[in-house]
Amino acid sequence: MVSKALKSLVLLLAAPCALAADLSLPVELFSPLVAQKILATANTVQNPTKYPQYTDRVQGVWQYFVPDTWTSGFFPATLYELNRRTTLCAADVSAQGLNGTDWVLLGQTWSAGEVPSETNTGVGHDVGFLSFPFVDELQLHPENQSAITAVNDFANHLAGRFDPAVGCTRSWDTPDPTDFEVIIDNMMNLEVLFVSANLTGNHTLIDIATSHADHTAINHVRPDGSSFHVVEYNATTGVVVSKFTAQGYANNSTWSRGQAWGIYGFANMFKHTQNTSYLETSRRMAAYFINNLPDDGVVPWDFNAPLVPPRPADSSAAMIAANGLILLSQGELSLSPPNKTGSDFYVDTAIQIIANNTALAWRPSWQSLLANGTVNNPEANNLTGIVYGDYYFVKNANDLVDLGVATCNGSLTGTLPSAPSSTSSTSSVSSPAATNTGGVQAGAARADAALDMTR
Ligand SMILES: *[C@@H]1O[C@H](CO)[C@@H](O)[C@H](O)[C@H]1NC(C)=O
Ligand SMILES: *[C@@H]1O[C@H](CO)[C@@H](O)[C@H](O)[C@H]1NC(C)=O
Ligand SMILES: *[C@@H]1O[C@H](CO)[C@@H](O)[C@H](O)[C@H]1NC(C)=O
Ligand SMILES: *[C@@H]1O[C@H](CO)[C@@H](O)[C@H](O)[C@H]1NC(C)=O
Ligand SMILES: *[C@@H]1O[C@H](CO)[C@@H](O)[C@H](O)[C@H]1NC(C)=O
Ligand SMILES: *[C@@H]1O[C@H](CO)[C@@H](O)[C@H](O)[C@H]1NC(C)=O
Ligand SMILES: *[C@@H]1O[C@H](CO)[C@@H](O)[C@H](O)[C@H]1NC(C)=O
Ligand SMILES: *[C@@H]1O[C@H](CO)[C@@H](O)[C@H](O)[C@H]1NC(C)=O
Ligand SMILES: *[C@@H]1O[C@H](CO)[C@@H](O)[C@H](O)[C@H]1NC(C)=O
Ligand SMILES: *[C@@H]1O[C@H](CO)[C@@H](O)[C@H](O)[C@H]1NC(C)=O
Ligand SMILES: *[C@@H]1O[C@H](CO)[C@@H](O)[C@H](O)[C@H]1NC(C)=O
Ligand SMILES: *[C@@H]1O[C@H](CO)[C@@H](O)[C@H](O)[C@H]1NC(C)=O
């Protein structure tokens, strides 16, 4: 069986100069509506005690939640992304409506309400997401002690949920303490452990991240690269008790957002460790995601959900997967020698996923940027805007500019990222290290892969 991804790679290798269809970015990525809507939301509350998570289904009005909800970090982190854009797109700041706003101050103000969560055990396991704006703050102000404290507190809170018998951090608390449930989403938590280890020199945090990732690769990821949402372990014996779903269509199905978290999470593990075992897991998860996309490129909420009635999309899964593919492409480039073919393929595919799902979900009249998110279909929460869908929409655009692939007016430069010149293995998509020497050939090859993908 030759997968679509493999066929695209073969094409890339065989016919890099073939006449190509145009691959293009959706202009919405850099629309002034992005800054305008996000600013309007930021200005609704001055001292936020509640955070936007998802919208209603009809008018796209944000619904607000208390700070210790797992999604609270995404809106402040989006404000930091817009600050990042003022630097990346310095010449287009007015055109994008980014001028006249202190995005850093807004990000700081909006993350302040999260602070009690740092030491609030009620917050549970999703501290990686909550830590995003504080990690962003440290990129700007590495000496900021309250941001350092926030990151370290979140990391230690997560480390406190590690069970050596299981080898993972616990997700949900359950009435039976020997019932130890781990969700694929928690691959996204591991970043805060690396950031804190970097700040403190505490290697235990890295050991915990590594162990969690290793067990997730073995027990959540199936041989074909698809994934279970939840694995239940016995906290005493460490054995796997069951595998099931919480938010997916069936216990043995592949929930698309979980699959997307996995692509990103394992690519991120590779970035931090340079262990190619993680790169391979991310590749396998990416291949499953790409090969199971329908012809219209619209990401369904679950890859195994029935086609009738029509499966609601999940635009957030699309945006997360695209960001994971961009990170995976950087992983391919950091190999020695750089895997240009693999890198180009993942950037191409990311652009295509962004294009197809933006075409579906962009909603000028809504408060959110995108519609067509599925928060939790088993709980009948679909067809909404979602704060993390919007966050990754904004971050994808920034990352593509950062890598030199896109310009700030929404066109492709015709070049693809090439390997950073030094210490490539520790580079991240938010570092400006990449320069572009991909040239015309790579541009043609990229479009060629795009042609093949939707077959
Ligand atoms: C942003 O720049 C444009 C063009 O220079 C200007 O018309 C607009 O008033 C500025 N907006 C703010 C909020 O400063
Ligand atoms: C330090 O970071 C915190 C948390 O992100 C923020 O609230 C505060 O404004 C920052 N302080 C300074 C001096 O930048
Ligand atoms: C390192 O982190 C672990 C997990 O949070 C903690 O138990 C340990 O005390 C820390 N070590 C030091 C030296 O702070
Ligand atoms: C875990 O194993 C212990 C010891 O065998 C047993 O008492 C407990 O019921 C098990 N828990 C689960 C959730 O399987
Ligand atoms: C570790 O700290 C250095 C120096 O502040 C920084 O450049 C690097 O990005 C950090 N890495 C992580 C994983 O936080
Ligand atoms: C890489 O990770 C795999 C498991 O994911 C582990 O078995 C192997 O020992 C690791 N390799 C190195 C060099 O750490
Ligand atoms: C998953 O399996 C459990 C236990 O058999 C069952 O109660 C549940 O309904 C199943 N979930 C789905 C979505 O089929
Ligand atoms: C899930 O299990 C059902 C019932 O056993 C089976 O019909 C279906 O093919 C399975 N789906 C996957 C994706 O394995
Ligand atoms: C999906 O995106 C690709 C690349 O932008 C485009 O060529 C294709 O027409 C899109 N498919 C649909 C059904 O919109
Ligand atoms: C996208 O959302 C619109 C309503 O906002 C809905 O009519 C349409 O069916 C949705 N499409 C998918 C594929 O979910
Ligand atoms: C390059 O990346 C592709 C896609 O991940 C992979 O199939 C291929 O084996 C990689 N090549 C090398 C030399 O690592
Ligand atoms: C979407 O959610 C609605 C309720 O809001 C539910 O009735 C419907 O079954 C869901 N759609 C699908 C196809 O699962």
From TrEMBL:
Residues 1-20 form the signal peptide. The keyword Hydrolase applies. Keywords: Hydrolase, Signal. Residues 416-455 are annotated as: Disordered. GO terms for biological process: polysaccharide catabolic process. SUPFAM superfamilies: Six-hairpin glycosidases. It comes from the Eukaryota. The keyword Hydrolase applies. Residues 417-435, 442-455 have a biased composition (Low complexity). GO terms for molecular function: chondroitin hydrolase activity. Belongs to the glycosyl hydrolase 88 family. This is Glycoside hydrolase family 88 protein. It comes from Phanerochaete carnosa (strain HHB-10118-sp).
